[in-house]
Amino acid sequence: MVGVGGCVGAKGSVNCVVRVGPAGDPYIRTVPQPENEADKERAAARDRKWIDRCHPTIAQDRYGVPRYHYVAAGCEFGVIE
Q1: Are 1 and 20 in contact (CB under 8 A)?
Q2: Pairwise CA distance, residues 11 & 8, whole Å
Q3: Taking the model in full, what pTM does it have?
Q4: How do residues 21-50 score in pLDDT, each as one tens digit?
Q5: What is the 3-class SS of 4-59, one letter each residue?
Q6: How many other C-beta atoms lie within 10 A of the C-beta of residue 70?
Q7: Each residue of 55-66: b (16+ CB within 10 Å) or e?
Q8: Domain spans in the chain, listed from the N-terminal domain onward
Q9: What is the pLDDT of residue 12?
Q10: First to last CA, the chain
């Protein structure tokens, strides 16, 4: 657990806040892995279908940052259909 806090204000008017939570990056989400062979096959089929529709490629933008590009709309959100 990690706690972060702070206060702002002046004499007679102070506001404080504390946030307590698990250590680590709060923006990283853990995705559960398939538990059995049937789930693994379904996940692999779904991935193949997405790749066949979206054809993801990586190209550098004008700032040199690698970016994904797709041939179909919605692919950046995982849309398959």
Answers
A1: yes
A2: 10
A3: 0.58
A4: 888 887 888 889 999 999 999 999 999 999
A5: EEEEEEECCEEEEEEEEECCCCCCCCCCCCCCCHHHHHHHHHHHHHHHHHHCCEEE
A6: 15
A7: eeeeeeeeeeee
A8: 46-81
A9: 86
A10: 41
